[in-house]
Amino acid sequence: MTEENLSVRGSPNQGLFGATLGFFFGFAAVSLFGPTAIKFKDILELSPQMLGFLVAMPALSGSILRIPFSAWVDSAGGRKPFLTLMIIAIFGLIGLSGLVYLIFKNPLYASQNKTLLYYLILFFGLLSGCGIATFSVGISQVSYWFPQKRQGFALGTYAGLGNLAPGIFSFLLPISLVNLGIINSYFIWLGFLIIGTILYFITGKDSYYFQMLKMGHSREKAMEFAKSCGQELCPAKSLIDSLKLSAKTLRTWLLVALYFTTFGGFMALTAWFPTYWTQYFKVSLFVAGSLTATYSILTSVIRIFGGVIADKIGGINTSIISLVLMAVGSFGILFIRNFDFCVLSMLIMAIGMGVNNAAVFKLVPKMVSNAVGGASGWVGGLGAFGGFVIPPLLGAFVARNGSEGYREGFLVFLLLAIFSIGIDIVLKNMAKE
């Protein structure tokens, strides 16, 4: 056994476990922000569009920062960018927790300084969104651990289990709010994030290539050794190279559009559904939280199976089928006002969106194999940008048409699904060339 064999640490499964654990807790940083945003509405006198912008703010940093931080993986490995994002998210949640304490302990002060407090919430919400940005870092980190034939399973498992966080916390949040109050709930969530950061520091592992670089070996030596250990994918030379290489291919941008539809849409709905259920169907916050949690968990868990399906029938075929389901679910919520039917339509949307999320990242390492980190950054970052763009659009429907706007806003998701099916057809034709 060589000295290098003795020095490197970890295995593909260990790399997958550490990244999944880190992303799960990173998402905790914002999992209560959307569901509790409605509580700021009356004290700060927020309009529907201001509320939509507020719940979307973490998605702005959580999407845009995925681009440079994921590309950073190609030159530094995943641990450094992952931990950097987690620490920034901790500062964001510390700020939000302090503001929540101030607002709900001193409502008179809050009402007199509502503009200042609103912008401070936006700022610290922006910082806390860094926890979401860990997603693309983990995607790149996991991709370099696994061979092509297992990418669907590995990335589906990583994203599926990691994305369980908002769903699980949506179940826990109403219980916490009722029994502990909003102030204590925020500090508990802050504790979750700190614990998760520590656990990632202990368990997160870079693949063999990056470990060899950190030992001082040349890129050529590191690549040779990594491939001898079964690592198929090796990165471009630098962050800038990775971003440039991936940006030059049309396939990257088509995948961005697909991911905008379903993961950006997922983030938007996770934040918007509590408002939709409480304001349109007048259900309690507990019922709204439970329905949102069901949507979030189903979208996340089904992603694991979506990855397996994509391994078997291909990413493009899987994507087309899933987007048809999303369109059917969107159509149901848009045109049928029955509560039970809307719940069923929500579940159909969850299945379609979750499976497509897995299919997209099955396609990334296959279509942009020489710059997985850069491509993952563009796809995960600009794709997740939908979580920032879509909620204000939904708020605009409400501002224009009142309560009926909550239903009419789902036209956005129907049109996105149809458009994305067209993108899949283009990708399918490109694959035949």
From TrEMBL:
InterPro entries: MFS (IPR011701), MFS_dom (IPR020846), MFS_trans_sf (IPR036259), NO3_transporter (IPR044772). Keywords: Membrane, Nitrate assimilation, Transmembrane, Transmembrane helix. One of its GO terms (biological process) is nitrate assimilation. It is a multi-pass membrane protein. Residues 250-433 form the Major facilitator superfamily (MFS) profile domain. Its main location: membrane. GO terms for cellular component: membrane. The chain crosses the membrane at residues 16-38, 50-69, 81-104, 116-140, 152-177, 183-202, 253-273, 285-306, 318-337, 343-364, 376-398, 410-427. It comes from the Bacteria. GO terms for molecular function: nitrate transmembrane transporter activity. Pfam families: MFS_1. Belongs to the major facilitator superfamily. Nitrate/nitrite porter (TC 2.A.1.8) family. This is Major facilitator superfamily MFS_1. The lineage of its organism: Bacteria, Pseudomonadati, Thermodesulfobiota, Thermodesulfobiia, Thermodesulfobiales.
